[in-house]
């Protein structure tokens, strides 16, 4: 059977632009070790340099410590976050929404050693 061909008329006010990933906000987590070392600016500078190499990005970029984002995921902004990696364990304190890197600590004992 043959189907009739109809012209599709769309009112321009009903057409919205397609947003691409580069137009959307980008949230980057500062690694636990970077937060513990108290050098957030070096991480931010590296991110800015990488984004500059990629070219113009119209969407906003937000940097936040992973420890802080871990608490946000549970709806709180105050606590101690422990990250157990394969080779090291890092504890970071978040006090009233701000990371206190001086109150954090790390150990070269990680999950690999803990599970032996």
Automatic annotation (TrEMBL):
Gene3D superfamilies reported in the protein's UniProt record: 3.30.420.40
Name used for this protein in its record: Uncharacterized protein
């Amino acid at each position: 059977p043959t189907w009739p061909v109809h012209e599709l008329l769309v009112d321009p006010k009903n057409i919205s632009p397609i947003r691409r990933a580069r137009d959307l906000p980008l949230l980057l987590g500062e690694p636990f070790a970077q937060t513990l070392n108290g050098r957030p600016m070096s991480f931010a500078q590296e991110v800015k340099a990488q984004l500059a190499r990629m070219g113009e990005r119209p969407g906003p970029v937000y940097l936040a410590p992973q420890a802080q984002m871990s608490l946000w995921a549970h709806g709180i902004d105050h606590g101690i976050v422990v990250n157990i990696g394969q080779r090291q364990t890092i504890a970071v304190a978040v006090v009233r929404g701000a990371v206190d890197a001086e109150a954090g600590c790390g150990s070269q004992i990680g999950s690999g050693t803990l599970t032996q």
